[in-house]
């Protein structure tokens, strides 16, 4: 079996926020890094430079998660570079805030296509490599809203709930192939996704969390890293929610 330093991790939506923190966490351990992004070219390059400064071999690649054709091209490029992922982190996604009565079909289709179809396509395209070598880790970055639901985030919550069900079902399908499938469902994390909240709203939200604070992207990255380790092979089909005790 490969050592961790011989493995490759692909992080979708890896240019910023939790995705960038995950990339840096793996880079610190010498894992080969593939940072996927859609349009954030410069930000992806900044994250790549930070990973290279930690000693990692890094490749950045752009693809639309809604497009099988683009993702197939991404897979083929990674194969040419000898960087088919041993660890797939399905982190790419988009949010949507608004009452269900105001959600359009276009809104519904777009969020479903990125958050669920994108995860499905990436998993389907990269799992054969893992099955063939009888080792792999698939880690889906979900959300606490996929567990508890959120008012005015029905669409987003639905996609994350679907991600959790996908995780549990696929884990059973791949267990005998040596591939684990888990989901990480963070609570409130201090990233740029919080820019829509003012300081008063943030303070009120913090008071609801038993830990008294938001999580950090680095804390989420540490859990993702742990689930990727060879010694985590008996953990599969789990949805783990680091949320400061907010939801138990």
UniProtKB/TrEMBL annotation:
The keyword Oxidoreductase applies. Coiled coil: none annotated. It comes from the Bacteria. Keywords: Oxidoreductase. GO terms for biological process: monocarboxylic acid metabolic process. One of its GO terms (molecular function) is oxidoreductase activity. InterPro entries: NAD(P)-bd_dom_sf, Sc_DH/Rdtase_CS, SDR, SDR_fam. NCBIfam families: EF_P_mod_YmfI, PRK07231.1, PRK12826.1-2. Belongs to the short-chain dehydrogenases/reductases (SDR) family. This is 3-oxoacyl-ACP reductase FabG. The gene is fabG.
């Amino acid at each position: 079996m490969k050592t961790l330093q011989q493995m490759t991790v692909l992080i979708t939506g890896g240019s910023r926020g939790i995705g960038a923190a995950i990339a840096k966490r793996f880079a610190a351990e010498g894992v080969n890094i593939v940072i996927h992004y859609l349009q954030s070219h410069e930000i992806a390059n900044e994250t790549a430079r930070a990973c290279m400064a930690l000693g990692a071999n890094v490749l950045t690649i752009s693809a639309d998660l809604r497009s099988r054709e683009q993702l197939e091209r991404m897979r083929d490029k990674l194969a040419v570079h000898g960087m088919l992922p041993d660890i797939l982190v399905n982190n790419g996604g988009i949010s949507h805030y608004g009452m269900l009565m105001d959600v359009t079909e276009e809104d519904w289709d777009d969020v479903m296509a990125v958050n669920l179809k994108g995860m499905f396509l990436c998993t389907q395209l990269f799992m054969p490599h893992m099955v063939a070598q009888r080792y792999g880790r698939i880690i889906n970055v979900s959300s606490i809203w996929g567990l508890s639901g959120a008012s005015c985030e029905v669409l987003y919550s639905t996609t994350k709930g679907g991600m959790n069900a996908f995780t549990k079902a696929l884990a059973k399908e791949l267990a005998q192939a040596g591939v684990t499938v888990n989901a990480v469902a963070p609570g409130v994390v201090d990233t740029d996704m919080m820019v829509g909240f003012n300081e008063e709203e943030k303070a009120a939200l913090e008071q609801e969390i038993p830990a008294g604070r938001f999580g950090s992207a680095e804390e989420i990255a540490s859990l993702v890293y742990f689930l990727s380790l060879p010694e985590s092979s008996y953990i599969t089909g789990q949805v783990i929610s680091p949320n400061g005790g907010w939801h138990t």
